[in-house]
Design goal:
The chain has one domain (2-146). With 153 residues, it is mainly alpha-helical. The model has no long low-confidence stretch (mean pLDDT 91). Helices cover 62% and strands 3% of the residues. The chain starts with a helix and ends in a 7-residue tail after the last helix. A two-stranded antiparallel sheet has the order 1-2. α6 (109-120) runs antiparallel to α7.
């Protein structure tokens, strides 16, 4: 019975989240990107908040924590640079899930072409995935600033 009560509570919370997200106009705009569904769009919007805080897409990338860290000292320059992970873990997870859904289940040809180009350059799977998430953040910033839907062509 306890599990059933938790399930009922979770469905009630999901309905509340959906109802609140429907009131936000950007909710539909974000979903115009193939691969972003209801839950991912709600997560992205809740984590970003006001997009006006970020005057450049790279600031939003840094907020998500998917910007590369640069290690350099004197003449030494590192060849492997990891992402900083200094931002929102939930936003990072939602972006990676959106990219995976965009690559596998949807018809987001621009994202697939970018991913294939990175893989043909010899990048590993996760590196190409984070590069696609970076590209997605730039698209999200442009959509939220201009209030126009995403176009594939």
């Amino acid at each position: 019975t306890l599990i059933l009560q938790y399930q009922e509570h979770l469905t009630e919370l999901e309905q509340n989240i959906d109802a609140l997200a429907e009131e936000i106009e950007e909710y539909e705009l974000i979903q115009s990107i193939p691969g972003i569904g209801h839950k991912i769009a709600a997560t992205i919007l809740s984590e970003i908040g006001e997009v006006d805080r970020f005057d450049h897409p790279k600031k939003l990338v840094a907020f998500a924590g998917i910007d590369p860290s640069v290690f350099a000292s004197g003449k030494f320059t590192a060849t492997r640079n990891r992402i900083t992970k200094r931002g929102s873990r939930q936003l990072r997870y939602a972006l990676v899930m959106a990219v995976q859904c965009g690559l596998i289940r949807s018809r987001n040809t621009r994202l697939k072409e970018f991913y294939e180009r990175k893989r043909s350059e010899g990048k590993p799977y996760k590196v190409a995935l984070v590069a696609c998430a970076n590209k997605l953040v730039h698209w999200l910033h442009a959509i939220l600033k201009s209030k126009k839907a995403f176009r594939l062509a």
